[in-house]
Amino acid sequence: MAVQSVEVDASTTNPLPVDLGPATALSCRECGERFELGPIFACSSCFGPLEVAYDLPLGDADALRKQIEAGPDNIWRYAPLLPVPADVASKPSLNPGFTKLVKADNLARELGVTGGLYVKDDSGNPTHSFKDRVVAIAVEAARAFGFTTLSCSSTGNLAGAVGAAAARAGFRSCVFIPHDLEQGKVVMASVYGGDLVGIEGNYDDVNRFCSELIGDPLGEGWGFVNVNLRPYYGEGSKTLAYEICEQLGWEIPDQLVIPIASGSQLTKIDKGLKELIALGLVEDKPYKIFGAQAEGCSPVSAAFKAGHDVVRPQKPNTIAKSLAIGNPADGPYVLDIARRTGGAVEDVNDEQVVESIKLLAETEGIFAETAGGVTVGVTKKLIEAGLLDPSLTTVVLNTGDGLKTLEAVAPTTGQSAVIRPNLDSFREAGLA
Amino acid sequence: MAVQSVEVDASTTNPLPVDLGPATALSCRECGERFELGPIFACSSCFGPLEVAYDLPLGDADALRKQIEAGPDNIWRYAPLLPVPADVASKPSLNPGFTKLVKADNLARELGVTGGLYVKDDSGNPTHSFKDRVVAIAVEAARAFGFTTLSCSSTGNLAGAVGAAAARAGFRSCVFIPHDLEQGKVVMASVYGGDLVGIEGNYDDVNRFCSELIGDPLGEGWGFVNVNLRPYYGEGSKTLAYEICEQLGWEIPDQLVIPIASGSQLTKIDKGLKELIALGLVEDKPYKIFGAQAEGCSPVSAAFKAGHDVVRPQKPNTIAKSLAIGNPADGPYVLDIARRTGGAVEDVNDEQVVESIKLLAETEGIFAETAGGVTVGVTKKLIEAGLLDPSLTTVVLNTGDGLKTLEAVAPTTGQSAVIRPNLDSFREAGLA
Questions:
Q1: pLDDT digit string (tens) for B304-339?
Q2: Fewest 10 Å CB contacts: which of A164, B202, B303, B411?
Q3: Measured between CB atoms, does A12 come within 8 Å of chain B?
């Protein structure tokens, strides 16, 4: 795969000025080398991942807080902290974000949490997962770089998010999936009218194909949200940190429980919290970040428990398919954050995932996808192990919607009884 | 079925003072007789339907507008105009509402609308349909009347909304459905932990059974949201009118296109608009209300076209199952409103419903349930017929989520191509 990169001084490759607001450059997370803003994702010196560097509006925190609070009820209220132009809110977008932070008192009683338990419920996004956040940012980068086609490799959720965002924003979309996905995911991903291409192979094959396509003339003008636009895309997860703190009255919670797929979301939430502190929008205080995995795909949890700095890849086998990345790119960074903040990484088995989906539904009326079952289940396990302090404020993420993973709970839900349409039959059922 | 009713002066049946905020009584829509607030739904004199009467905060419109704007981002910002106690926002609820009003410029171009086209997208509610609004109000009535079990008859969507709301609000739930619903709907309705009872029979049988249960000691303490709590429940739809006007900068749109099932939603939106005018929150101006049905269940549309005042029942046969009420209770009121405001009632066939779901998805990235296909399709048809003026501001309702009616679009969506994981194979597919 050809790694494309441009050094800051080489201004020839991108003749148009790129306006991505406070974003000033891309910077290598490993060696720190800086590159001009562009559709690149790996350092040309050390092959490390690139992330967005900013010129953040340090200074008058009160004025910034007021500006944010007066902004729209979506992620664009945080435009001054994101790689997007200042007028982003006026462009066609699905406008995700500002989802509910639900005070989960019923669940807190079940888990014995006394310090305040909250569920950040991202099933309220336009296509019902947190992916709408990251895709919305990638769309703005795609606009800035002059791309006309939006693309991605996906196992389903991201495909729908990209298809929907592209339709609204006026891009063509062409999305790649393993050819044998469940029909429901295929329907949702294709209803937005873009091209949906099935690849004969597994998700790794799809990924490899996309990397090939980026280096080929066939892929010219294509923005792959999770490949050549990945540095921008990832920044969308920072908005989860911003919203949680603003919704808590501009306070950082003591503890956060975050699902781990690639690990990107967890690292960006940590980045977002640090930015809020640096900007003076919240008071500096310690916080603990906990990572949550499914036992059937728990490379980061395994490394955490073994005290390793590196993550040994696993072959995923879990119902939590949206978290089933066996070789998570940001695994080492996650380990570092969990250890530095005094958190932990834990996993639960599929049975516990299902139990936890039902526990959240039965206590708070929130029907989470399997990833939400993972975070709730891990929260319970961490409390029982004494690793998560129930007397402290805790925020648990639900990143998706149970309607998309019905098959996970189908075997253990259903009708309590089937009766004839009369009172005697109902009486016999013993449910009155 | 026993009709329970209590006259205003007979204060013995309900010894506890009922605090439902500005709601003062129930009033018969046919003969005007008034009854004390209670779990009743039909007039004891003429058997007409009861609706909530209010003591609305007439007077300082600016102060009321400010109070609303400072309220929570959900339907409780309108608490002064709803049958709920003033402290409703502090009670456990799914807190539905304040969903997006999407400026649909792409769809407007497709339909030739130049006066501003908006989609009120209620798929953003907690269980992804407008039912969360009506159920949330019914829950407050159930609290006020001391009920401990929440119930309803349902073909799926309402069952989920009641199950979720009951779980969060601390009620037991026991919901009745036809026993042979699709598995997906059964899973969603049962995941919240309440009882879900399948009835051997069709939806009419389920309804009849619920009416029997209300009159029996077995049903004591049970609030049926769409039967004995129906007058309160229905008021939830007023919030759609409030939100649309507030989101348009406190202006009434010129034209609204609303789906018709029982017809209740349409009549309550009209009621809400009239209240906003009476309160001085919006300027008084003419507006036209259009009703939308599926051809396979179009009793109101048929009556409108034939110039009738009454609605002849039909046997439903359409993919728009959430609208498939063959004998709509509020049909005559809908006819009256459409004629009085200069609107119309129209219907589209199932093929047009599917085309319209896809048109909305492809232009705005909104994946609507079949009812949304009905309103978009009817809008197109009304413009072509010269009945809806494309130069005026128009709001089209999408009341639910495409994820719940995947089967409607499944036959005509899918993968554009299936390829081997290499560039040659992609090139041959002709999609680059």
A1: 999 999 999 999 999 999 999 999 999 999 999 999
A2: B411
A3: no
Per-residue model confidence as pLDDT tens digits over B263-316: 999 999 999 999 999 999 999 999 999 999 999 999 999 999 999 999 999 999
How high is the pLDDT of residue A204? 82
Percent of chain A with pLDDT over 70: 96
A25 to chain B nearest CA, in Å?
31
The two tokens of residue A244 are: 């949680």
Same-domain check for residues B263 and B308: yes
| Chain B neighbors of A118, CB-CB under 8 A | none
CATH number at residue B142: 3.40.50.1100
* DSSP code of residue B36: -
Residue A400 has pLDDT above 90, yes or no: yes
CB contact under 8 A, A404 and B403: yes
> Cβ B366–A164 below 8 Å, yes or no?
yes
Of B126, B197, B422, the CB nearest to A416: B197
Q: Do A49 and A153 reside in the same domain of the chain?
A: yes
- B282 and B317 assigned to the same domain: yes
Is pLDDT at B1 greater than 50 in this prediction?
no
Is A195–B431 a contact, with Cβ atoms under 8 angstroms apart?
yes
In this complex, is the C-beta atom of B127 within 8 Å of any C-beta atom belonging to chain A?
A: yes
**Looking at CA atoms only, how far is residue A107 from chain B in angstroms?**
10
Shared domain check, B140 and B43: yes
Pick from A107, A121, A110, A192: nearest CA to A158: A192
Number of structural domains in chain A: 2
**Closest C-alpha to B357, from B300, B407, B315:** B407
Q: Which candidate, A160, A325, A155, A179, places its Cα nearest to that of B426?
A: A179
Q: Does any domain span residue B317?
A: yes
Give me the mean pLDDT over the B64-71 stretch.
Answer: 97
pLDDT recorded at residue A111: 98
Residue type (1 letter), B365: G
| B371/B358 Cα distance (integer angstroms) | 13
Please report the pLDDT score of residue A16 as a whole number: 60
pLDDT tens figures, A318-366: 999 999 999 999 999 999 999 999 999 999 999 999 999 999 999 999 9
The separation between CA A348 and the C-alpha centre of its own chain, rounded to angstroms, equals: 19
Residues 214..243 of A with a Cβ closer than 8 Å to B: which? 216, 218-219
Question: Is there a contact between B191 and A367 if contact means CB atoms under 8 Å apart?
Answer: yes
Q: How far is the C-alpha of A300 from the C-alpha of A310, rounded, in Å?
A: 8
Q: State the CB neighbour count (10 A cutoff) for residue B423.
A: 18
The single-letter DSSP state of residue B49 is B
Residue B75 lies in a domain: no
Q: Look up the domain containing B146 and give its range.
A: 23-58+130-233
pLDDT in tens, B52-63: 999 998 989 999
| Residue of B135, B426, B427, B431 to mutate, testing the A interface (most A Cβ within 10 Å of its Cβ) | B426
User: What DSSP character marks residue A48?
Assistant: P
B209 with B258, same domain? no
Number of Cβ atoms within 10 Å of the Cβ of A430: 8
Q: Of A233, A252, A286, which residue is a domain's last?
A: A233
For residue B136, pLDDT over 60 is answered with: yes
Cβ distance A414 to B128 less than 8 Å, yes or no, reads: no
Position B407 in a domain = yes
Task: Read off the pLDDT of each residue in A58-81 and give the average, rounded to a whole number.
Answer: 96
User: Residues A172-224: pLDDT tens digits?
Assistant: 999 999 998 888 889 999 999 999 999 999 888 998 999 999 999 999 999 99
**Residue A122 CA: distances (Å) to CA of A12, A99, A360, B288, B417:** 41, 6, 14, 36, 32
CB contact under 8 A, B409 and A187: yes
The verdict on A428 touching B (C-beta cutoff 8 Å) is no
Q: With 0-12 CB in 10 A as exposed, 13-18 as middle and 19+ as buried, what is A217?
A: exposed
Cβ <8 Å between B94 and A365? yes
Same domain, B367 and B386: yes
